[in-house]
Fold Riboflavin biosynthesis protein.
Amino acid sequence: MRTFHLSSESPIVSEDLSASALAVGFFDGIHKGHQQVIRTAVQQADKLGIDTAVMTFTPHPSVVLNKSVQHARYITPLPEKERILQDMGVDKLFVVHFDLALASLSPAEFAEKFFVDLNIRHVVAGFDFSFGYKGKGSMKELPSYAKGRFTTTTVAKVSQGDEKISSTRIRGLLNQGDMAEIKTLLNRPYSIQGEVVESQTSREAPGPPMINIHMNEAYYPPAFGIYAVEVEFRGEIHKGMAVYSMGLLRSEQNEEGCLEVRTFDSDPYLYGEKIRIFFHDFIRPVIECEDREQLMEQLLNDERECRRILTLL
């Protein structure tokens, strides 16, 4: 997959690119609704004998248009999107820088720069996709801007449980720690990538040490709690338990939050390495313990429950 970084000031002319069927949207999460849009673009590309392309935007529009928002966290930060889209067989990824200049383009100007000039032959988007100044452009009006140079498909709302599948819904579930429901909406477990910053904590818990992870700040964090997880490092997947908290002992509080992981079948030295954590299920909320004996007993109970859940995967 080739990735192109674009802005309103640096378009690519059509002669430089082969024709594509394009799925366009912000696509944070690449959930079932997004997957339907992308699969439709793949089908159109196969039908027309052209490439499949995806267009996304960075940063989130709220960072640019809402002065109170300084930093956005994502279900799928850009590198995560690239990884998933590559696995979906996408040929091209257009990453468009969202700024005030882009937001000021009229719908017609947007269509010219980012559809016509990129040699797009077919545009696929969700029913609620909007573009151009103040979002005045819609999929209903897009054919009038196309002027016969490309065709369009609008994907209807995708729901589950009588509710639209959306990034907002998934973020709400992350706030609750409901990883099982999130897995059904994503068609995969929620995952984050982080770097091992300590080989083990100071707690002398039975079994392998807890690995301290610096979570990439671009990810939307889950609720504080104990989770049954799988951990990927060095090309292998290991079952384990994750603890995300401000500290399990009252004397060891960390206001920024601390993510720790224990794998059940290995005790590697991973300091400085990047690992991926797949969240499968929420075990319980965090309970502050008064002493280490109570903490050790609780962690052993948590590990037993995690092992039970993970054997059912």
